């Protein structure tokens, strides 16, 4: 049963943390609504076009690079639904460490490459924007034309809006009649389309009972009695620019452009408004200070949490921000690795654990489950060098060639 947080609003000071927060809420059975929506660049269609642009980013007649073809082949709209193609790809890469998608004729990898080229239908050519637009449109119809999409889901609306945006951008490029668009490479044309669509926002439809999520500065206009602010750390609140070679601090001040001092004053005012409007038991304000940002870098609590405090109050606040409750880390460790579900009843899948497997379990229960229980193996598209087994096979082939 879904949980709800009625009458409450969650503000996020660092937009990069939104995806992780929404995923955590979903795991707790709570729906969320991000007022700003998602950028098209994060969607499936943009990811596909990005992979295609890398795939055709080569000289005419040249084979595509292995990494670009491998990425496109694994994309859901490339050949991601064909498990056999991925297995063939992995086996070939492990033995040959190829730079290009140019497996010899008759090899299964060559057949997979041919099917991928037919499915995409684009070549590395130099043509007019009109010609490219027609070919890209044909490709999108071929890929998405018969796909069933649920427009009640955010992913369905993202796909629909992204495809409509691509069509609109291509029509605009064709209508411009600019000289450099009379002869443009396929990859460059696709990147022009992506540049125009990636930052476009796709709004989300509001849902009853969903946790309302807004940007930090929008919280000033919210009248919810209970609010929380996530990512309340230095770099986000106040947001600062450490260096800008084109607009240094003194030049920003002279031009009246926001500098770090103005951002500090703006965020201090916003915090005062949020706290003041909910003072005297009129509401609750929670400020969440993480230890790490979404990139995994350690962060410090916002300096606004220390402003206006002196002596004992300042010392108490510093201790409160730096001390962690006992058992907190242990509790998090116990949660790590959950969510795989029970192994089906029947024959035991593990009857003994080697020292190496036990080390894997201590490092990551998730990795242990994938490697030891499911028997999955890792394959790199760009390993950089042959494996020991691959090198041994190569030596045998060389020696065999000399008789």
Q: How is this structure best summarized?
A:
With 403 residues, the protein is of the alpha/beta class. It contains 15 helices and nine strands.
Outline the structure in words.
It is a single chain. The chain has 403 residues and is an alpha/beta fold. The protein folds into 3 domains: 8-37 and 207-322, P-loop containing nucleotide triphosphate hydrolases (Rossmann fold), CATH 3.40.50; 40-202; 338-403, no CATH class. Helices cover 46% and strands 7% of the residues. The chain has helices spanning 18-27, 44-55, 66-74, 83-96, 108-120, 129-144, 154-176, 186-197, 249-255, 260-276, 311-322, 328-335, 355-363, 365-373, 388-401, and strands at residues 8-12, 32-34, 38-39, 126-127, 184-185, 201-202, 211-215, 226-230, 284-287. The chain has a 5-stranded parallel β-sheet with strand order 2-7-1-8-9, with helices on one face. The model is unreliable at 328-340 (pLDDT under 50).
Instruction: Give the proportion of residues in helices.
Output: 40-55%
Oligomer: single chain
Strand content: 5-15%
**Radius of gyration over alpha carbons?**
27 Å
The number of helical elements comes to: 15
Give the overall average pLDDT.
82
Shape, please?
globular
- N-end to C-end Cα span: 70 Å
Give the tally of β-strands.
Answer: 9
- Total domain units: 3
Strand order in space, largest sheet: 2-7-1-8-9
Question: Regions with pLDDT < 50 over 5+ consecutive residues?
Answer: 328-340
Helix-strand category: alpha/beta
Main sheet?
5 strands, parallel
Strand and helix order: EHEEHHHHEHHEHEEEHHEHHHHH
